[in-house]
Amino acid sequence: MNHIFLRVAILILLGGISPPARALDRPNEVFKVFQFPADKIPRIDGDTNDWQLVPESYVIGSGQLVDDNGKHQLTDTSTPKIRVKTGWVKGLNRLYFLYEADDDYWDFAQPDLHNDTLEIVVDGDLSGGPLIEKFSPAKPIIGQWETYFTLHGTHAQNYHIFTPHAGKDWCMAWGPAQWLKELPYANAAQKYDFKPGEPGHYVLEFWITPFDYAGAEGPQRAVESVLKENKMIGLSFALIDYDDKNSGSTNNGFWNLSRHHTMYGQADQLCAFKLMPLEPQFQKAIDAQWSFQVVDMGRRLVAFKDLSVGEIKSWHWNFGDGETSTEQNPIHAYKNPDHYVVVLEVEGAAGKSRRAKVWDVAVK
Ligand SMILES: [Ca+2]
Ligand SMILES: [Ca+2]
Ligand SMILES: [Ca+2]
Q1: Tell me: the pLDDT tens digits for 134-184?
Q2: How far is the CA of 198 from the centre of ligand 3 (A)?
Q3: Domain boundaries, the chain
Q4: All residues with CB under 5 Å from ion ligand 1
Q5: How far is the CA of 74 from the centre of ligand 3 (A)?
């Protein structure tokens, strides 16, 4: 077979399983973000017990990081050893992380950037593009600091997380939007038992909120990235290892999930992470659920949408006005202004389920 033909065939095949056509790094790999059930949301306290339900297939370890572009040579492949789990909760625009690391020399006595660091970059809507002033095409026109205040971190965010943080903030949110690293947008807790210069095991539990727009002026104009099941986001992290308090700004190693060192400021170089559905063991076999939208208030026209979980064979809607339907997604016109009790009953091989909403549906 002709080689070009074969290559095209392989590309088409890969195209069917790879993420949307974004210029992301590691284009044929999709990392998974675990969906926590709503009654098992991790508590940010440094205790790892609430992460034990996350399957091993979600773990990213040291072996998956690369020495990006050879800028920093691996001097010792044995340290630091890391394990990262990522999670999310349907209905919350938060990314949860559990970071566990073993290092032979924890460097965290200095008040500045010289600190063992976990650097995280997130692009919640895959907008791509430069996220720090250095890479902005506007910089030569409007200057470094105008670019910093208008662009830096606005559509993708970079966090330098100090591991551990002692006598300093838990992270540097790189850019002018410092409100990003505080509640209600972020939270962090750590556990460790070592002094600067000693070896040991470190645990950090935290969450951040990704933003499609996060401006210098504060959260009032900010737009959170909406996290939805099966959505793909851009994410990467790097490990900056310091092993000598006297080395100034020179670090000992820089390992990255992206193969591009400049992922710290180029959202196109992040990796694809998928917000996964609940694992089967946390799903109900059958569960009635639905939403609605008033399509036309003048005609009291309401569109109902089935969101039930499981294999459903039949639907029965009671609209609360004496009318019913067996369609999956009915549209119903109410005759009179009122708020109604609407009930959906579904049935499948796993049994029956009912979901009523009391007075949610109202027309005037
Ligand atoms: Ca915990
Ligand atoms: Ca973005
Ligand atoms: Ca270190």
Answers
A1: 999 999 999 999 999 999 999 999 999 999 999 999 999 999 999 999 999
A2: 9
A3: 22-275, 284-363
A4: 42-43, 45, 47, 50
A5: 13
Ligand nearest to the CA of 270: 2
Q: How far is the CA of 251 from the centre of ligand 3 (A)?
A: 9
Q: Look up the pTM and report it.
A: 0.88
CA of 146 to the centre of ligand 3 (A): 35
Q: 243 φ, ψ to 5°?
A: -130, 20
Question: 199: CA distance to ligand 3 center in Å?
Answer: 8
Question: 207 forms bridges with which residues in the sheet?
Answer: 96, 187
State the distance from the centre of ligand 3 to the C-alpha of 115, rounded, in angstroms.
Answer: 8
Q: What is the distance in A from the centroid of ligand 3 to the CA of 280?
A: 39
As a whole number of angstroms, the distance between CA 108 and CA 165 comes to 7
Distance of CA 117 from the midpoint of ligand 3 (Å): 9
Q: How many angstroms separate the CA atoms of 303 and 155, rounded?
A: 34
May I ask the CATH architecture of the domain 284-363?
Sandwich (2.60)
How far is Cα 145 from Cα 11, in angstroms, rounded to an integer? 43
Q: Which residues partner with 177 through β-bridges?
A: none
Query: Do 22-275 and 284-363 show the same overall fold?
Result: yes
Backbone angles phi, psi at 80, to 5 degrees: -80, 155
Go through 327-357 and write b for each residue having 16 or more CB atoms within 10 A of its CB, e for each that does not. Answer: ebebebebeeeeebebbbbbbeeeeebebee
- Ligand 1 centroid vs 69 CA: distance in angstroms? 35
Model confidence band, residue 23 (pLDDT cutoffs 50, 70, 90): low
For the chain, percent of residues with pLDDT exceeding 70: 90
Structure tokens at 102: 């073993």
Q: How far is the CA of 128 from the centre of ligand 2 (A)?
A: 6
**DSSP-assigned letter for residue 269:** G
Give 338's strand partners. Answer: 363
Q: Closest by alpha carbon to 159, among 95, 70, 91, 203?
A: 95
CATH classification of 22-275 is 3.90.930.1, yes or no? Answer: no
Q: Residues near 16 by Cβ (< 8 Å), separated by ≥ 6?
A: none
